[in-house]
Design a protein that fits this description.
With about 220 residues, the chain is an alpha/beta fold. The protein is about 50% helix and about 15% strand.
Length: about 220
């Protein structure tokens, strides 16, 4: 039986690195991200199905669910940063958008795919951040959405004993998102996403009990 994974935010960074790792192990992949050109390039490279779109769009989430009548792994990796700024100056419209992308969309996609994940005793990976638990000045908007995602994951794990649920802190990685936050020079010293993805793939393969996982 060939395993199938749906990975959001898979045109770059950790999502793309994990897709490459899983493809090397023979997984079928459905990839999605907002930027269609790099997403289609990744799909062509890996022999995957590309479905460009925004996970905050309910119609797009429905298309994703329809594309995976059999599903073994859902990876909620797509997220938005919203800028690094103090909470007293954080635009509320931006914060609402972060909640939609970083919290509502992963939960909604879980709801869309849970029936097939239950049937195949599948797994869910919700990618979080140390900003969910640390009091880092300027990171309150993003971090609070990741904290909400962690608690959703925690409760989901209790409610779904037949589905593995891991909320995964990948640590700092040399990605475009980190470079946006701290600058390219500092980001260049962070971990290679490919190495982090290999550790995440090992997690999926070994299937430990549901819970929070630090990958670095």
């Amino acid at each position: 039986m060939t395993n199938t994974a749906l990975i959001t935010g898979s045109s770059r960074g950790l999502g793309l690195a994990l897709a490459r790792s899983l493809a090397g192990a023979g997984w079928n992949l459905v990839l999605t991200a907002r930027d269609s050109l790099p997403l289609r390039a990744a799909a062509d490279e890996l022999g995957a199905l590309a479905l460009p779109g925004d996970v905050a769009d309910p119609a797009h989430r429905r298309r994703l669910a329809d594309a995976v009548p059999e599903l073994d792994l859902l990876v909620n990796n797509a997220s938005a940063l919203g800028g690094i700024r103090p909470l007293d100056a954080f635009p509320l419209d931006t914060f609402r958008g972060l909640l939609e992308t970083n919290v509502t969309a992963p939960l909604a996609l879980v709801q869309e795919t849970l029936p097939v994940l239950r049937a195949r005793h599948g797994a869910i990976v919700n990618v979080t951040s140390d900003a969910a638990t640390g009091s880092y000045a300027g990171w309150g908007g993003y971090g609070s959405t990741k904290a909400a995602l962690e608690q959703l994951s925690n409760v989901l794990a209790a409610e779904e004993p037949d589905v593995a649920v891991w909320w995964v802190d990948p640590g700092e990685m040399n990605t475009a998102m980190l470079a946006e936050a701290v600058g390219a020079e500092e980001a260049a010293g962070a971990a290679d996403p490919a190495k982090v993805a290999a550790t995440l793939h090992d997690l999926v393969r070994s299937r430990p009990a549901s819970g929070r996982v630090n990958l670095q």
